[in-house]
Specification:
alpha+beta; Heat Shock Protein 90; 5-stranded mixed beta sheet; 4-stranded antiparallel beta sheet; 50% helix; 16% strand; elongated
Amino acid sequence: MRRPSAPLLVQLLTLTGLTLVAAWAMSTFLLFALPPPAPDFYRLSEIEHTYRGEELTFTERKPLQLTASRTRPGPELEGRTIPEMRGKIARDIGVPPSAVVIAGERGPLSDRRVGRIIRDRAVRAGMGGEEHFLIFPFKVGVQQADGTWRVVQTQPVIGLSDWQQRLALWFALSALLMSPVAWMFARRLTKPIKEFAEAAERLGRDPRAAPLELVKGPAEIGMAARAFNEMQGRLQRYVEDRTAMVGAIAHDLRTPLTRLRFRIEGLPEDQRAKYSADLDQMEEMITATLAFVRDATKSGERTPLELSSLVESLCDEMAETGARTEVEAGEKVVLTGDPMALRRLIANLLENAVKFGGRARARVFADAGNAVVEIDDDGPGIPPADAEKVFEPFYRREPSRSRQTGGIGLGLAVVRTIARGHGGDVNLINRAGGGLTARVQLPL
């Protein structure tokens, strides 16, 4: 495993910092490179025509509107030219200057370029240099004889203003430009984690899989990979030691069994037959245990395997010996596994179905990323309480201890061991119409 790169915390902080700096840089560039939109402005003559009720056409600006109000408009604008504009409006419409109020909210222009843009637009509109105008938003109120006010004002803005829309567009553009960079950084950070998860998944399917090899990635992933490899080695040594111990015990039991056989030769015939049957059963259990230990410690090479063909061949072989077996036509399912171990798994389930259920009907299909093998029989099924116990070594629901009917009790234990060794599992399900279904799931 190569030396990992910087810690994940450092990489995340670097990614966040670079993203923020780039976004700020782009926003600052756009803010200074593009002038803010100039607000709408209106000549005093346009305000006067609106006050008189005359129809005006505004193509690029929001139209003015005339309303009535019982209160004085406010807040009043202040400035060097405001009294002059009030006087002009009062003279043109025939009222005293005290009856005219110009109200609104005026702040300093955020950019000098806005003033130049307004002046250029005024020149293009044919306004003279000395002609007065008001900048949106504003209210021009004229007090009537009855004390009420007629107010000419700009229409209120609904939603975002032009400046706000442009800001939102700038931020969206910045995010769009930064998205590929953020995606590349995020992919670089998550790729080692994904590889680590895939390697752990392979280990779950094959306990003897090679140790994890992390080519590059954050330091934390390298530490996790090393800890994972050490854990895998300890687990393998633990299982191998336990399995070797069980095999040694089973092997050493052959010696006292042999001595017992010699000692029962002098017993009466009826007693010798009973003891001999018990010794034969014990020796068969020892032989089965040694075979189980041997198969568990010596797994074959895993290769791509077409599961449907394997099931069909086993059913055909059993049918040639007179067993009632059949296979439903289905899709071809390919997985990677130990061919000999999977052959033994399916053979054990087929033999159980024929032995205890009279016949076996098998099917193979793919479901949610798993290869599924289902084998039905026509037997009585099993009580729900025994659905898990039957997978325990040497457990038999047949109490007679007859080798012809009960067996040794390792068949289903071997089946589950093989299935879980491939990252899958096996379950027995009672069917509603009678009979039992053995269902094996193996990850593709």
